[in-house]
Amino acid sequence: MKSSRRAFLKKSAVTGAGAIVAPTVISSNVFGANDRINAAVLGVNGRGGSHISSFMNQSNVQVTTLCDPDLNVAGEKAKAFKEKYGKEVKVVQDLRHVMDDKDIDVISIATPNHWHSLAVIWACQAGKDAYVEKPGSHNVWEGRKMVEAARKYNRIVQHGVQLRSSPAIQEAVQLLREGYIGRVYMARGLVFRWRGDIGDKGFSSVPAGLDYDLWTGPAPMRPFTENLVHYNWHWHWDYGNGDVGNQGIHETDMCMWGLDVGLPSKITSMGGKFLWNDCKETPEVLTSVYHYPEEDKIIQFEVRPWCTNTEDGVTVGNIFYGDKGILVIDGYNEYKTFLGKDREPGQSGSDGQIQASGMARGDSGTDGHFANFIEAVRQQDSSILNGPVESAHLSSALAHLGNIAYRTGRVLSFNPDAERFVNDPEADLMLTRNYRAPYAVPENV
User: Fold this and answer.
1) Region (Disordered): which ranges (predicted)?
2) Which residues 6+ apart lie within 8 Å of 247 measured at CB?
């Protein structure tokens, strides 16, 4: 299945749930409202903790398994789980055992980025539905393989961009579609986060309890360093994608959703390390531009790490530009508009306001996004997903394209139908990677 902007546009109409419409799928797993859904969480350090609580906040959903290559982390989370919920939970080190467990119905994936797509593919092949953290992929090619697997095995796959389940953000997108700020021609993504010096701790022995081979998975095996485990892998190319592929996926996704576009035809990017003499490989500062000449639209994206300004009060969010005004999205759950050259305040909204008015159905935020996922699982209907697998691939791919343009140091021409660069074999090599057995993303899923 290939992705084109035209195909993406056909799927991108805003529905009542604010979702990109994906085809309905049919599965042998059918859950009634009173049937318990058993869940496993893969990667329980950091964001995985939110996955545990969001699953447990759903009706008739039980987290039965915690999986992490670091048994120290998994053991601590299991102890905290018992203290909070009064229940034992199974601890598993190898995610392949989770895939083999027939009692597990759904999984969530909060591993490092380099594991995301392969974990989704394995889950689909095992007949399980999956919630995957952003970014859905570590590179463009494996993101497409993830989409193919979800379609082939008729699985429900939700991407962890919870702003898509925000009633306020859904309302904002509807305003963009209706021309409230006129013809929308540009989107801007902002990631102004405080990212400090991580130093360079050098190489050391692998800590007891950590299966470093499993942690490394599809990536090349490197000597162990505390600069990777458990968070700073984000700033190393073999495992992470920098901040545009970390926090920034929320904003790349919002840019594409709001502009109603797929992948671009022209990409340029410039940046670098200007602040810290540490071991980060990814740029601290990055400016990327994505051009859609056929749609006459453009995306600008900014990553800044330190001592920066806000834009209309926003440090993490989006700004949309129309010929009659602008629409500003602050974070995950509120927006405001300014109309005309005098910037007259226009319509605004937040999840709190919409929920207080009784107009919103269910929760927003991470709990609301998990609720949307569980509803789709119970109905086995991917058309009601707010963050379906195709959007996971495309919003992640946008970040990857910006990183490739930065790493090649030139303006790139891209064919969004073929998902290949135009006459650029060097850039094409960066669309995928060499995988390490037995953790290879399969060509034929």
Assistant:
1) 340-363
2) 191, 193, 316
The two beta strands, 90-92 and 37-42, are: unpaired
Question: Which residues is 130 bridged to in the sheet?
Answer: 107, 157
Could you tell me how many helices (H) and strands (E) the chain has, helices first? 13, 16
202 burial via Cβ count (<10 Å: 0-12, 13-18, 19+): exposed
59-91 pLDDT tens trace: 999 999 999 999 999 999 999 999 999 999 999
DSSP secondary structure, 334-346, as one string: EEEEEETTTTEEE
Residue 56 CB-density burial (10 A; 0-12 exposed, 13-18 middle, 19+ buried): middle
What is the CB-side half-sphere exposure of residue 97 using CA atoms within 13 A? 11
Region of residue 173 (phi > 0: left; psi between -120 and 50: alpha; otherwise: beta) = alpha
Is residue 16 very low, low, confident or very high in pLDDT (cuts 50, 70, 90)? Answer: very low
Element (H, E) at 168: helix 167-177
What is the pTM assigned to this prediction? Answer: 0.93
pLDDT digits (tens, 9 = 90+) for 135-169: 999 999 999 999 999 999 999 999 999 999 999 99
CATH for 19-164+366-387 (3.40.50.720, 3.30.465.10, 3.40.350.10, 3.30.70.2740): 3.40.50.720
Q: Which residues are registered as beta bridge partners of 225?
A: 203
